[in-house]
């Protein structure tokens, strides 16, 4: 990937210690962004940082629980002072929960909402003023196909991701005329550490893997870098006409059925 931005252009990526967040941090760094990485997972952040360094990029790890308003506020201020005001914010961190409504405890509901929806609200609220000061900024939220259609035994997850799509559009409506773009990406199944853990715990991992792959019309799971590539496109000048959209990247998973 060639450099697409001027030196010192800062991108913040949450969930950068693993999966889609790691691939996004790596891709943006390769594109010339200086990347501030937020995550809870110290070792994972260090590993992403090493990979970025080996690729000749610049990355800065920030250990933070994205559900903690005070911590998100203070880390964002620290990033602005020590790295620079972000041009791009990518909200990737998220958690899943395999449960229908009847199986979902209050604590589980609140935890999923807190990480998947309140977390992005907090990072956006902390970062927007810095973007508005400069008159430009791009916010990209990783939602899910679960924010577009219902997925079996994913009640809280689907609700949180539909909420994130709504938040994405509301931010675009409120701030587009001030130079802000806000876009959601809704991936289908992407082969990350998260999916690896689900498969490892399945009674028959090989069968579970085949079933997961076959949910996509393409018959395979996506790769984290296929999501990261869209992030890079949206963040850069070629993405400048995309605002308030929810882009589905799912190998045809939600296109319809080809089973008669
Ligand atoms: N993998 C998929 O199939 C898939 C499909 C659709 C959407 N998504 C979405 O993409 C995003 C990334 O998924 P992934 O598969 O890369 O997951 P992952 O589990 O590999 O990575 C998620 C990262 O978020 C971090 N995180 C979780 N809670 C946090 C918190 N409170 N504070 C700070 N960091 C926290 C984790 O430490 C981890 O590094 C999620 O929002 C997920 O909902 C994933």
TrEMBL record:
<dbReference type="GO" id="GO:0016491">
    <property type="term" value="F:oxidoreductase activity"/>
</dbReference>
<comment type="similarity">
    <text>Belongs to the short-chain dehydrogenases/reductases (SDR) family.</text>
</comment>
<keyword id="KW-0560">Oxidoreductase</keyword>
<dbReference type="InterPro" id="IPR051122">
    <property type="entry name" value="SDR_DHRS6-like"/>
</dbReference>
<dbReference type="InterPro" id="IPR020904">
    <property type="entry name" value="Sc_DH/Rdtase_CS"/>
</dbReference>
<dbReference type="InterPro" id="IPR002347">
    <property type="entry name" value="SDR_fam"/>
</dbReference>
<protein>
    <submittedName>
        <fullName>SDR family NAD(P)-dependent oxidoreductase</fullName>
        <ecNumber>1.1.1.-</ecNumber>
    </submittedName>
</protein>
<dbReference type="Pfam" id="PF13561">
    <property type="entry name" value="adh_short_C2"/>
</dbReference>
<dbReference type="InterPro" id="IPR036291">
    <property type="entry name" value="NAD(P)-bd_dom_sf"/>
</dbReference>
């Amino acid at each position: 990937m060639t450099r697409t931005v001027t030196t010192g252009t800062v991108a913040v990526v949450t969930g950068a210690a693993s999966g889609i967040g790691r691939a996004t941090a790596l891709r943006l760094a390769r594109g010339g962004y200086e990347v501030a990485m937020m995550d809870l997972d110290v070792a994972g952040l260090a590993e992403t940082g090493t990979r970025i360094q080996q690729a000749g990029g610049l990355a800065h790890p920030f250990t933070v629980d994205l559900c903690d308003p005070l911590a998100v506020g203070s880390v964002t201020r620290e990033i602005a002072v020590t790295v620079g005001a972000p041009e791009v914010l990518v909200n990737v961190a998220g958690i899943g929960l395999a449960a229908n409504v009847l199986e979902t405890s209050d604590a589980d509901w609140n935890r999923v909402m807190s990480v998947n929806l309140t977390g992005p609200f907090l990072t956006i609220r902390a970062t927007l003023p810095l973007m508005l000061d400069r008159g430009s900024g791009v916010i990209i939220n990783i939602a899910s196909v679960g924010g577009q259609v219902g997925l079996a035994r994913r009640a809280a997850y689907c609700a949180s991701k539909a909420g994130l799509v709504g938040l994405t559009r509301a931010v675009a409506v409120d701030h587009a005329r001030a130079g802000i773009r806000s876009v959601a990406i809704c991936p289908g199944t992407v082969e990350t550490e998260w999916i690896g853990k689900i498969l490892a715990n399945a009674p028959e991992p090989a069968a579970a893997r085949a079933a997961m792959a076959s949910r996509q019309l393409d018959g395979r799971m996506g790769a984290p870098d296929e999501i990261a590539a869209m992030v890079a496109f949206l963040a850069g000048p070629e993405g400048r006409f995309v605002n308030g959209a929810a882009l589905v990247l799912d190998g045809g998973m939600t296109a319809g059925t080809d089973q008669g």
